[in-house]
Write a structure and sequence with these properties.
The protein is mostly helical. The chain has a 5-stranded antiparallel beta sheet, with helices on one face. The longest helix has 22 residues.
């Protein structure tokens, strides 16, 4: 408990000691980001305390003290529960810290804000710059946890002792559908029986200290002891008598329990943190399956059994085969799906599916745009490959997914609030990235090669990656077709979705593709209607 309190006090002290922006030295911006990163670590390590800070006054005598703490805590709770990307959270917390520092110093004026926003934009902190003030120059869409946290804080400022559940109910009645989805994560955790809330069960009345999925730990004021109670056996006590400081004093009693008799421990809050999966390697079940698929003597029934163990894989395969018009067969089960596609295609399908799921698991401002762009390019690749008759649609889809992965894995992309409008080299994914200098391009290719290797792709993938950004005539003959398919798919996706115009090099890419594979470019008019459902642009 002492360490937890010391960590909070140190964070509060360092947050309040940050210099108001704009910074005289760029290193001062790093101080903001360092403190923000510590807030993220603190939130995951002390989730029950974060909930108490978000829902309770810091102390009972000054309910308006440290209201900024409640704002940051609510924002982090929303982010953690909705799997917001780490880099986006970091810039979001920095935006809140910089806003409250300007407000505390009475420096919140138009000129200062303008200078701050320009400086942050110049240093590549777009999300931070766009969120120093809530919904600056744009109506809030409430598809971002930041907007919901601001609205939450407005309700709190109207009544500084507002109950967490009261604000939750008000927002549930006023938010649009997008905001409702983000807010819903709070109903599971912290939920209506959150830490710090006074509850009762039989002779026990006291505050919630910790919780599991179906139990709550309370400190019984009547019995002066801790006890675990079933959630379905307790009722709410509508009063706001507990503060953060009071909760801390009760937590300290956990360390003062007698050595003899039953010793009560707080529960592990890890269950309340949504699981995040590493993009740098495939799921273990997929690794095992890929090794089996590469075994020439493997029996189909064994592959079927391995796929059926993983519900996500079995559902994906049967659903994909059922919807695939090229198959022209009704597919009823996993075995039929595998026999329909063949083992090699099934391997490519499962890798592409699992990789795309992991690339898109965390929210960031451009996730909707990049997901739509990737889905469009992947579908075009599949159709072009089918039209070529020389490589499988599944392989082409996987090649394009790997090629577009930097949009989802580059840290700099997580803070961008608008897609780069760059009409140069539409076939090269690096021209969409924040930093597309030659050194940055080389680093991007190295990350792509590492990703392909980690996902157990053959050497052909690495050789294709090495050709990224080249014109077709500069690519070895055996790699030219998948290179042209991937590049042409990205060109058309950027033209149709983002409105990018072909530059001279892009036009040269299309012409060289037409010379080598005239059947590909001839498909353009047929393919646009097939991706039209993906061209309904996400709102920004």
């Amino acid at each position: 408990m002492t360490a937890m309190l010391a960590a909070l006090q140190e964070l509060v002290r360092d947050s309040e000691a940050l210099p108001p922006l704009p910074a005289r030295e760029a290193a001062l911006l790093s101080r903001y980001l360092d403190v923000s990163a510590r807030w993220l670590d603190f939130a995951q390590a002390h989730l029950p305390l974060l909930t108490v800070i978000a829902s309770r006054p810091y102390n009972s005598t000054e309910p308006t003290k440290h209201l900024w703490l409640r704002h940051i805590s609510v924002y982090l709770l929303l982010c953690l529960r909705n799997r917001v990307n780490h880099h986006t959270q970091q810039q979001g917390v920095a935006a809140l810290l910089s806003y409250y520092q300007l407000k505390q110093q009475s420096l919140l004026n138009k000129q200062r804000l303008s200078s701050t926003i320009k400086q942050l934009s110049r240093f590549g902190q777009q999300y931070w710059a766009a969120h120093v003030l809530p919904a600056r120059k744009r109506p809030p869409l409430y598809s971002d946890c930041f907007d919901i946290a601001w609205l939450w804080q407005r309700y709190l400022l109207r009544a500084t002792v507002s109950d967490f559940n009261d604000i939750l109910a008000k927002l549930a009645m006023t938010l649009p559908v997008t905001g409702q989805q983000l807010l819903h994560a709070l109903t599971d955790y912290p939920g209506l029986l959150h830490e710090g809330l006074i509850i009762a069960s039989g002779q026990h009345i006291g505050p919630v200290m910790s919780q599991l999925e179906d139990q709550v730990l309370i400190y019984s004021n009547t019995e002066e002891q801790f006890c675990w109670l079933a959630k379905n056996q307790v009722r709410l006590m509508h009063k706001q008598s507990l503060s953060v400081e009071h909760w801390f004093s009760l937590v300290s009693k956990l360390d003062e329990q007698p050595e003899e008799g039953e010793v009560i421990r707080s529960g592990d809050h890890g269950w309340a943190l949504p699981v995040s999966y590493l993009t740098s390697r495939p799921p273990l079940s997929l690794q095992t399956l890929l090794k089996a698929l590469n075994d020439a003597d493997i029996a189909v029934d064994k592959i079927v059994a391995m796929v059926e163990v993983e519900p996500a894989f079995s559902h994906f395969l049967t659903d994909a085969a059922s919807k695939d018009n090229r198959m022209q067969l009704p597919v009823q089960n996993v075995k039929q799906s595998i026999l329909t596609y063949g083992l090699e295609r099934v391997g490519h399908m499962l890798v592409q599916y699992a990789l795309f799921q992991r690339l898109t698991q965390h929210w960031f401002p451009l996730l909707d745009w990049y997901s739509r762009l990737a889905q469009t390019a992947i579908l075009l690749s599949s159709e072009l490959a089918n039209g070529s008759g020389r490589i499988t649609p599944q392989y082409a889809s996987l090649v394009t997914t790997v090629a577009l992965s930097p949009l989802f894995t580059s840290a700099q992309e997580k803070g961008k609030t608008a897609v780069n409008h760059n009409d140069q080299r539409l076939f090269d994914v690096t021209t969409l990235l924040q930093n597309n200098a030659q050194q940055g391009n080389s680093a991007t290719r190295q990350r792509l090669i590492s990703l392909a290797s980690a996902w157990e792709q053959d050497k052909g993938q690495s050789r294709l990656i090495a050709c990224c950004g080249r014109l077709p005539q500069d690519v070895p003959g055996l790699l030219r077709l998948p290179h042209c398919i991937s590049g042409l798919s990205l060109i058309w996706a950027r033209q149709w979705l983002l409105g990018h115009k072909p530059c001279a090099q892009t036009t040269e890419f299309i012409q060289q593709t037409q010379q080598a594979f005239p059947q590909l470019t001839a498909l353009q008019s047929q393919l646009q209607p097939k991706v039209s459902h993906l061209l309904n642009c996400p709102l920004t």
